[in-house]
Each structure stands twice: as C-alpha cells, then as structure tokens.
Amino acid sequence: MEEYGFSPLAIPTPMETPARFNLSLDILLPLLLFPTLFLAHRIRKDYHAYLALGPGGVPSTPAGYLRICILRPFAVRDPLSPPSLPCTLLPQEGYLQSRNLPNRSGPRPKVVGIVPHRQTTQRASAEMYAALVKDIHGLVDAHPSVLYTGTSCFEKHSTGIFCTLGPAALSRQDQAQQRQRLTCNGEVCHAHPIDGSLHLTLHPADVRFVLEKGWGQRHPIAREDWWWWRRSVPSGFVMIYAPRNEDERRCVLEIIRAAAWWVSGDAITACVPE
C-alpha cells in the first residue's frame, strides 16, 4: 500500500475510532450547551416580561406567548407613521382638526408588547384612572341612544364603549365603502387599568393628528397591507397614552369623542362615484 501513497497508519484501527468520536463530543457538547442555555434564559425572561403586561386579548399562557412570537416579525415598523387616507373616503377631514388639541408635553412614554400592548413609563395614578373611567361612563350616560358599555371585544377583560349605530346600521353599499372604520362589534375604545392608556379607532386624518401632537401611536398589528391576513384590528387602531393631569384627561376625553364620531358613522357619507 505504501507504493500507492497510502500508509497503514492513516487508517484508524477499531480501538481508535470510539476515542476520536468521544473527543469530538467533548468539544461539541460545550459549544452547543452554552448557546442553548443562553437562548433558554432569554426566552424565559421574555415570557415573564409578557406575563408582566397583564391580561389582554391573548391568554397569558405559553400558547398565547407563542402566538405573539409569530406576530412579532409582522409588527408595524414605525408606529408613528400614519395610515393612508384614500381620496375616496368621505369626509376627508377628521373630528380633531377643529378642536384645537394642544401638543402633549414632554417625551413619549415607553410602550412595549403587541397583545397586550402597554405603557411601562408615565403610567396614570389610580386616582387619575378612576377619574378617566368616570368621564367615560359620563360620556355614555350623556348619549344612551348611541353609546353603551360592555366588556371589550378586543381586550376581553377591560370595559369598553360600543356604538349602537355602528356598521350594522349602515347599508351594504356604505359598509363596503367604509370598511376602514369597521371594529369588533362596534367597539369605540377600551381603557387599561394597569397603566391608564386606551386603545381606540380613529379616522385616518385623526390618527395623523394624534401622532403629530404626541398623544399616542399606532397599534403594532394595525397594518393596512393587502397581504396582511390578520385583520383583528382596524388600520386606524391606536394607543392613546395615559393622562398625567386634569388637562391631559380632558384632551383624552376629546379623542374618545373623535373615536365615537368615527365608529358610529356620524357625518359619514357614502363615497360619491365619479
């Protein structure tokens, strides 16, 4: 065999093969163990951060967490970018432009999560949240023929405001032309006891107004792409930051009025054909 360039020493004997195999495992196992432990630690930490957000539209279970992990790659990249305003949508102007809503002072709060979607800084005090809830019920009591309260269709836990004159009261033509304002059972808004923030649905022009004035940001899965299969929330679904004082509470209530105006269909007419 040596005359052909082969040496008997190059061929492992039966006794050498297990030894080399064991040596490879001794090197490979530590290389795999440390990344696996690090990944498990990150997943555990992320799961507990998900649970810390409190109850929401997705169960606080490993199955619910897995659903959120699947949604993360599809979240809106820039929550401060407004949705489009179709030229066929009437009216073109929203509710808030004529209300002289001021700019929200200071930096925006830190917001995390998808479902739940919560503030982690600048949260409302218990007293401020109680006052906000009282304002919300007062708004409903002032318009009993249009608004009513119930368990949030989106959140599944907190109290929400619903419109009796929502999409169900529209003609089929109007429903087809006003799909941007379709919400879950006509829900207008719901508040979050854990941080004092709200989720609600606005006219596209009002979404832009709220973003520019610093009062909120779009929900992570409020996409409007044609390929987006999960239409669980409207494209105008936004978070409104928790009020920190009485002046901000009055502004937030005005934004809730804008949501009721939009979802109820008040002053919304069918698109005029060309």
TrEMBL record:
InterPro entries, alphabetized: Luciferase (IPR048273), Luciferase_dom (IPR040841)
Pfam families: Luciferase (PF17648)
The species this protein was found in: Aspergillus coremiiformis
Signal peptide per UniProt: none
Luciferase domain boundaries: 186-259
Domain of life of the native organism: Eukaryota
Protein name: Luciferase domain-containing protein
